[in-house]
Design a protein that fits this description.
Order of helices and strands: HHHHHHHHEHEEEEHHEHEHEH
Low-confidence stretches: 1-6, 307-314
Number of domains: 2
Number of strands: 8
Helix content: 40-55%
Shape: globular
Structural class: alpha/beta
Mean pLDDT: 88
Length: 314
């Protein structure tokens, strides 16, 4: 048996987890009380047979250790048996630990992540705020970009499930998530998980994320949303020009399309940033767990932006 002993320095934390040490420590500090409360409720559950204090204790006894190995798993997406070997635990122990902690990270760092748009809309309606007044509270709401990303997944064994997960665009088996970001790349909205076969336009029709944004907000979208102006006719949604089958775009329309792409490019940068976590490159887990995983990585994206006006969104 090979015995390896090493010390993880603060500099290596970013290499292993994708988070600089100050951000990692901040996240751990916010996660600690939420983890303790979740554990207290779990131990008091009616389904639990053992009494309080019974059962084995966590070998990863600090919240920093638990968070470190979960982020290591998401960042590099190694097999859980590798993590178990590093921790000298059984793989089932690691799996249960990750399933518990992944439900709490987004709640600890960015609890408004999935309800920001609804809360902003409700606040404006309740207080009768004009768009100028709303921008004072939420200055980044001047421009919002919405788009869908595909996350490759394993080939399902079931033929019917393969049919629903087959992406006509990417020619692969995938799952889809739609997000909305502000001009500073802060994620303010995340959809639920959809099968790869579903078109971007149909996802928006169900999520209505564009409709939750103030109608005065500038919203550049791609050609996947052609027809969205009929659903939200009063909203400031801009779609690039599209060439027809037998007619190329002229020079003016090509310049217009390039200018539109420059307005949209930040969301592609956000997708690239999220997919630095390899778990979002080729997802192997259960579909129902992807929501929590994606929320966590989106919260980490917002944590690392380093904006001066971050507290206005808390």
């Amino acid at each position: 048996m090979i015995k390896i002993e090493t010390t993880i320095t603060t500099g290596l934390i970013q290499v292993f987890t994708g988070l600089p040490h100050p951000y990692f420590q901040r996240l751990a500090n916010r996660l600690a009380p939420i983890w303790e409360e979740a554990e207290r409720l779990r131990l008091l559950s009616k389904d639990r047979i053992r009494g309080i204090g019974g059962g084995s204790k966590y070998k990863l006894n600090t919240i920093e250790a638990k968070l470190f190995f979960y982020l290591l798993y998401c960042r590099h997406y190694v097999n859980q048996r590798v993590i178990a070997g590093l921790c000298k635990l059984d793989q089932s122990n690691i799996s249960r630990l990750f399933e518990r902690i992944e439900k709490l990270i987004a709640q600890a760092e960015d609890p408004q992540l999935k309800i920001f748009l609804e809360n902003m809309k409700d606040k404006r309606v309740a207080e009768g705020l004009s768009f100028a007044e709303l921008k004072i509270l939420y200055p980044e709401i001047e421009k919002v970009i919405t788009d869908v990303t595909e996350i490759r997944c394993n080939r399902p064994q079931n033929k019917e499930r393969r049919k629903h997960k087959t992406s006509g665009k990417k020619k692969q088996y995938s799952l889809k998530k739609q997000i909305s970001i502000t001009k500073s790349n802060r994620i303010i909205g995340i959809s639920k998980t959809y099968q790869g076969k579903i078109h971007d336009f149909n996802i928006e029709k169900q999520e209505a994320m564009i409709g939750k944004v103030p109608k005065e907000t500038f919203q550049p979208v791609d050609l996947g949303y052609v027809g969205i102006n009929k659903i939200f006719p009063e909203h400031y949604v801009i779609i690039p020009p599209k060439k027809t089958k037998n007619c190329e775009l002229n020079a003016f329309l090509k310049d217009l399309k390039r200018a539109h792409s420059r307005q949209r490019i930040p969301i592609e940068h956000v997708f690239a940033s999220l997919k630095k976590f390899n778990i979002l490159k080729n997802y192997r887990g259960r579909d129902e767990r992807l929501d929590n995983v994606f929320d966590n990585i989106a919260a980490i994206n917002n944590l690392c932006l380093g904006r001066h006006n971050m507290n206005k969104f808390k």
